[in-house]
Specification:
It contains 2 helices and 10 strands, in the order αβββαβββββββ. The protein is mainly beta and 160 residues long.
């Protein structure tokens, strides 16, 4: 082999070795968004289920957009509100939105044993509070209703 062929062969071998340590798997979520996750390649002859937990993708929190649409005259004065729910994947979530120049924060919790129905509550430093009831269609999409302390009612849409 010539010097150039040896360098080219060595470069190809290094490239193959560098790429053999993991693979990228595209995953399509329920909304059609493509997400890429990196997984290490299991050693030859080892089934993926026997792979140590440290090598498996951990289920982590996921942020879900929340949109509230007016459902009565009081809510029409403010209009649509946007916020977010961070699903902790433990049956609980963190809820946050801005309402009339006040940031309301709180939590969302699934009803005992039912992974589709839940309640959410949030409170702001100015004394405003809200309460919601919702039903999830998928882990990242659902709908419900919210009532604010001033009497405003909204239709809640979760997910994109």
């Amino acid at each position: 082999m010539t010097g150039f062929s040896n360098i080219a062969a060595a470069g190809l071998a290094l490239s193959a070795a560098a790429l053999s340590g993991c693979y990228i798997v595209p995953v399509v979520d329920p909304q059609g968004n493509v997400q890429y996750h990196h997984y290490p390649v299991p050693p030859a002859g080892v089934p993926a289920g026997a792979y140590p937990a440290a090598y498996q993708a951990p289920p982590g929190p996921v942020s879900i957009p929340a949109r509230l649409y007016p459902a009565n005259d009081m809510a029409n004065q403010t209009g649509m509100i946007s916020g977010s729910v961070t699903n902790m994947r433990t049956g609980k979530g963190r809820f946050q939105l801005q309402f009339q120049n006040e940031v309301l924060t709180g939590e969302a919790t699934r009803h005992g044993g039912d992974d589709k129905h839940g309640v959410a509550s949030a409170y702001g430093n100015g004394g405003t509070y809200m309460q919601c009831e919702y039903q999830m269609n998928t882990p990242v999409q659902g709908a419900g209703t919210c009532t604010f302390s001033n009497g405003a009612r909204y239709k809640l849409h979760l997910g994109s």
